[in-house]
């Protein structure tokens, strides 16, 4: 009786060495994948782009009376509010010279001068 000598698949073919029971299944899949090409898959119909919902950082919201007076508006988005606050801080030089992440009040800045 002649025995068939089938080598194990190497890591270059399948990433790892494959056990003898798995060889036949993997070999048939490899032959099918190489030999026969399937028809191209149909792409789903392109959906129309969704309109922005106006949520999150860009959603205009009512703001507190103190912030309304500071910003000069009744509604503002979170992003716009932060932008206006940072503009004010930079315009009035309220950042610490040593650490630009620190904000100092006008009263503290005037005391230091």
Automatic annotation (TrEMBL):
Record's signal peptide: none
Database matches in Pfam families: SWIB
Record-linked SUPFAM superfamilies: SWIB/MDM2 domain
Annotated InterPro entries: SWIB_domain, SWIB_MDM2_dom_sf, SWIB_MDM2_domain
PROSITE patterns (alphabetical): SWIB_MDM2
Region (Disordered): 36-59
UniProt biased composition (Low complexity): 39-52
Annotated DM2 domain residues: 56-113
Family matches, as PANTHER family: SWI/SNF-RELATED MATRIX-ASSOCIATED ACTIN-DEPENDENT REGULATOR OF CHROMATIN SUBFAMILY D (PTHR13844)
Protein name listed in UniProt: DM2 domain-containing protein
Native organism: Adiantum capillus-veneris (Maidenhair fern)
């Amino acid at each position: 009786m002649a025995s068939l000598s089938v080598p194990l698949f190497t890591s270059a073919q399948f990433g790892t060495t494959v056990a003898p029971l798995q060889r036949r299944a993997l070999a048939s899949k490899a032959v099918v994948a190489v030999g026969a090409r399937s028809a191209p898959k149909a792409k789903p119909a392109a959906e129309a782009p969704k309109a922005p919902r106006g949520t999150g950082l860009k959603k205009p919201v009512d703001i507190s009376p103190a912030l309304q007076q500071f910003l000069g508006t009744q509604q503002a988005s979170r992003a716009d509010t932060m932008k206006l606050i940072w503009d004010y801080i930079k315009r009035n030089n309220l950042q610490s010279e040593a650490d630009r992440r620190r904000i100092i009040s006008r009263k503290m800045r005037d005391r230091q001068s």
